[in-house]
Amino acid sequence: MTQEVNLNSLKELEREMVLQVLYRDQVVQKVEEERIRKLKLHLQNLRWRPAKNTNQEYKEKSCARCQKSLGLVINRGGVCQGCSHRVCSECRVFLRKTYVWKCTVCFADGDAKIKTGEWFFEERAKKFPDEKFTGDNSTCTVFAVRICQPRILMLWT
């Protein structure tokens, strides 16, 4: 949602301030895009680490993340609730002082969704499956305008 704003009616000082705000917004958006790109790259690297694939034999019990051999009694591994892979105790991340855990890849995936805001669009798509609502910035801005309409005087994107 891009609005054209006529800055000719503003004084020189006001025009400069508006342009400075818009410039800062562009800088912040670029920094945010870079942060999100790094998060997704880190997640991709975790996924591509030595994980089991369908060609590998499953006769030997080994961790799906680090390929460490799993024992019969001690450190026999557990099945991740997210991906259903068997992982060792070192490749688990416990969630907020509970006994619930996920493997490192599933935890990083959830963490990336939280940090990027993708969880919001996924949950919204589940709740309103008929609506076309994607995760791009323009749609997010439109949603923010709908919610905060009484409090927003003018929105520049």
From TrEMBL:
What SUPFAM superfamilies does this protein's entry cite? FYVE/PHD zinc finger
- Name of protein: RabBD domain-containing protein
GO terms for biological process?
intracellular protein transport
Which PANTHER family does the record match to this protein? Answer: MYELIN-ASSOCIATED OLIGODENDROCYTIC BASIC PROTEIN MOBP -RELATED, RAB EFFECTOR MYRIP
User: Gene Ontology cellular component?
Assistant: perinuclear region of cytoplasm
Using the record's annotation, list all stretches that form the RabBD domain.
4-123
Which key words are in the record? Cytoplasm
The GO molecular function terms of this record are: small GTPase binding
